Amino acid sequence: MNQDSQFSRDADRSDTRPILIIPYMWIGDFVRNHTVVRVLNERWPNRPVDLLTTSLCAPLVDYMPGVRDGIVWDLPRSQLAVGRQLGLAKLLRERNYGTALVLPRTWKAAIAPALAGIPERVGFVGEFRFGLLNRWRWGEKKLPRFIDKNAALAQPDGAPVPPEWPVPQLRVPAEDIVRWRQANGLSAGAAVALAPGSVGVSKRWTYYPEAARLLAERGLEVWVVGGPAEKGLAQEIVAAGGPGVRDLTGTDLRNGVLAMAAAGVAISNDSGLMHIAAALGTPTMGIFGPTSPYLWAPLNGLAATVVQDESVLSCQPCQSTICRMNDHRCMRDIAASKVVAIAQQVLGV
């Protein structure tokens, strides 16, 4: 967005109190949270913005312009963890935040900001958080997309949803990419990054091994990117694709960020790595079946939104993590040859 955007026109430069964002901690949602950062940066250019983060998502903060600091604090998902909440509250109190934006609508997400005594605690009504939040927002269900719900909290109460939000950005220095290629013994040529993982089995396209083989046969270097959960699948893809395919899965998300930044094109399920690649500016192909591209595709836009050729199935989009109808046709009917042809068009080869 430019300096004449609706947010910068209403900028308040007199306020210097730091702001804390408590985001959703899934990787893709964490990336999309950068839109909230950018709205805050334009609305309050002199207020530092910090992000609460988990150890998993912490590497992303280093590549997010406009973020002062990431507060790494792992809270268990299924427990209240009173001691951890008290420890976090103590840390937040020491940082003298003026405002906390609590994006998740859970009770647990609002505990530490309240215990820390942050003066303004903004969030949507939900889970009986009266007393924990003191700047209530209403109308969450009227906002169509996840990003609308989150970024609206960075606007004045009652402000209309803009036609466009600022898109998430991740910036990786060019020298970091060069060092990463050298450390992994990779050439400087264009490569195709495959991201076969996702949260939810139904979102996983199953023809990555065949696609890797076809891409390698065309002389393209292929990288399989993901976390430890994708290690077995990566080995299967490497076995099918041959020596031109490399397994680059690992435990450090930073490795995935650098791989997506270095790739000439990324092919991904609806997953966190899709959002990372798009925010980096890497041409990204998103494969969609059970989820809606309108609701879940990156704001950055995709080089290609890949869906089945036939008309939409009656069960689409089901948003379910496991297919219970039509034998996973929404993903099974997307041929590897189609995906490879699109990738070649994107690469211009």
Structure description:
The protein folds into two domains: 6-152, Glycogen Phosphorylase B (Rossmann fold); 179-347, Glycogen Phosphorylase B (Rossmann fold, 3-Layer(aba) Sandwich), CATH 3.40.50.2000. The strands form two sheets. A six-stranded parallel sheet has the order 3-2-1-4-5-6, with helices on one face. A six-stranded parallel sheet has the order 9-8-7-10-11-12, with helices on both faces. The protein has helices at 6-9, 27-32, 34-43, 58-61, 82-94, 111-115, 146-152, 174-183, 208-217, 231-241, 253-262, 272-280, 293-296, 329-332, 336-347, and strands at 19-22, 49-53, 69-72, 99-102, 120-124, 135-137, 191-195, 221-224, 245-247, 265-269, 284-287, 304-306. The protein is an alpha/beta fold. Helices cover 34% and strands 14% of the residues. The chain is globular, with a radius of gyration of 21 Å. Strand 11 (284-287), helix 13 (293-296) and strand 12 (304-306) form a beta-alpha-beta unit. Keywords: Glycosyltransferase, Transferase. This is lipopolysaccharide heptosyltransferase II. It is an enzyme of class 2 (transferase). Pfam families: Glyco_transf_9. Its EC number is 2.4.99.24.
